[in-house]
Amino acid sequence: MSDKRTLSRRRLLKKTMAAAGGAVLLAQAGSALGQGPAAVTRRRFKAWISRGEGPGRTTLQDATLRPIAGRQVLVRTEATNLCYSNVPAVLGIQPPAGARPSALAAPPGARRLNDMAVIQGHGGIGVVEAVGPDVRRVQVGDRVCVSGTPHCGACYRCLRGRSDMCQFLSAIGPDDLVAIADLADGTPVYENSQIGGLAEVMVAFEEWVVPIFTKLPAADVGMACSCVAVAGLGATTAHALMTIEPASSVAVVGCGPLGLSAVQGARISGATTIIAIDPIGTRRDAARKVGATHVLDPNVEGDGLVQRVRSLTTWPTSRLWSGGRNPAGRRPGAGADYVVEAAGLEHVTPKLERGPDPTGLLPMQQAYEMCALGGHLITTSIIRGDLVLPGNLFSIGGVTHHGGQAGGCSPMKDIPRFVEMLEKGQFDAKTLATTVVPIERMLEAYEQVAYRTTITGLMTS
Ligand SMILES: [Zn+2]
Ligand SMILES: [Zn+2]
Predict the structure, then answer these.
(1) How close is the Cα of 208 to the center of ligand 2, in Å?
(2) What is the per-residue pLDDT for 104?
(3) Could you tell me the distance, in angstroms and rounded to a whole number, from the CA of residue 156 to the centre of ligand 2?
(4) Which residues pair with 305 in a beta bridge?
(5) pTM score, two decimals?
(6) How far apart are CA 98 and CA 118, in angstroms?
(7) Please, are residues 343 and 360 in contact by the beta-carbon 8 Å criterion?
(8) pLDDT at residue 233 greater than cutoff 80
(9) Cα separation of 164 and 234, whole Å?
(10) SS3 sequence, 172-202?
């Protein structure tokens, strides 16, 4: 049900400004209001609303959309990935006692996301239902990806080739969020990171919206465009951080949906030795299926994991005058040319095989050490605690570390490429999307994601 009508500039401005917070984005949205009639869609929709503390904080509720204004885009959700990093917010899982707060946590006294009614999620795919008057990138009826990270193309970082660090990213804190809807009791509804996903609709500023031109099924497209696939494919094929050469060696530490996407990206880029490392047997099987040439269980390898990777990456010879490298010695030259770290911390104890370190620190250290001297490491995970690295290796070992969002990917450039990889059969979405549920069963699927009994889950609506 939609009721389109044109509001006066004054009334719309008043309504828009009534949304708390969002100073920067809102001011920019408001400044565009004089340029034409706003497309306004008032619409009821179902949304998973997270609020308060602990388990049970996320419930399916009806909400009424606020007017769409400025650079906002209304998207009817077709599919959204149930991202592991969103598990604590959705399922209400607290960090372990004594865990230090994240350096990215809100300062004391600031507005808390937990006190607000928030639609969680990291974006998704869908069809544009309405656009604000200042939107240029997409039109009503377009199929789009609401990206996990923005890409404005105009800010300081976008202009310097690091769209994964687009400065619009800095406007996603609790005080920045713009209310997009109201609950029946008048409570304003916000979206995580200005994008949400766990609802029948998403409202995003156009910087987060990428048009995609495909007719493939929603679950497959949703997988290829998910935050995790974008990060894994971005790390290995976007070339913003590193460029994987054909016939090179790549190690992927952690084979959840992000790592399995990185395995595929390594294959697509022409790597000929692809070592996938994960404690969960079904994930190692999936890695082999999508392109890994070797799979390793970190629990079996134990302290020998780094050495094992080195033993698999001695190509082409140990004859140093013949283009070879020294596989042993004090500073062994063996090691993966490229390493993608995608393990991360455990939010809850998995019901399948556990990794060697629930904080995610050990896999990250091992990822650093298994990288060849002169090689490249991309880290993608959320970990708990501070990383300790061998100082001299860090300083003069020649390993180039790349940290960033979404594997360095530029959403407007790269997401359409990932859809093309899906279209042409280079990217296998089905092996990764092992749980696909309708909106009503979202929580059940999220539990599977949390306990790692599935590779990843998608919600369709
Ligand atoms: Zn995510
Ligand atoms: Zn930007």
Answers:
(1) 10
(2) 54
(3) 7
(4) none
(5) 0.90
(6) 27
(7) yes
(8) yes
(9) 10
(10) CCCCCCCCCEEECCCCEEEEHHHCCCCECEE
- How far lies 345's CA from each of 52, 305, 364, 449, in Å? 23, 19, 10, 14
In this model, does residue 296 exceed pLDDT 90? Answer: yes
Distance (Å) from CA 318 to ligand 1 centroid: 42
Ligand closest to CA 205: 2
Structure tokens at 417: 């490429």
CA–centroid distance, residue 121 to ligand 1 (Å): 7
pLDDT digits (tens, 9 = 90+) for 153-211: 999 999 999 999 999 998 888 889 999 999 999 999 999 999 999 999 999 999 999 99
**What is the rounded distance in angstroms from the CA atom of residue 19 to the CA atom of residue 285?**
48
pLDDT (mean) for 419-443:
98
Distance in Å, CA 325 to ligand 1 centroid: 38
Across 318-455, where does the E strand assignment appear? 336-341, 371-379, 400-403, 433-438
Instruction: Note whether 174 and 113 are within 8 A (CB).
Output: yes
Query: Whose atoms come closest to the Cα of 121: which ligand?
Result: 1
Name which of 48-62, 99-113, 128-142, 276-290 the model is least confident about: 99-113
CA–centroid distance, 209 to ligand 2, in Å, is: 13
The pLDDT of residue 105 is 63
Cα(173) to ligand 2 centroid in Å equals 17
Cα of 148 from ligand 2 centre, angstroms: 13
Nearest listed ligand to the Cα of residue 405: 1
- For residue 11, report the distance from its CA to the centre of ligand 2, in Å: 30
Instruction: Tell me the residues surrounding ligand 1 (ion) with CB < 5 Å.
Output: 83, 122, 227
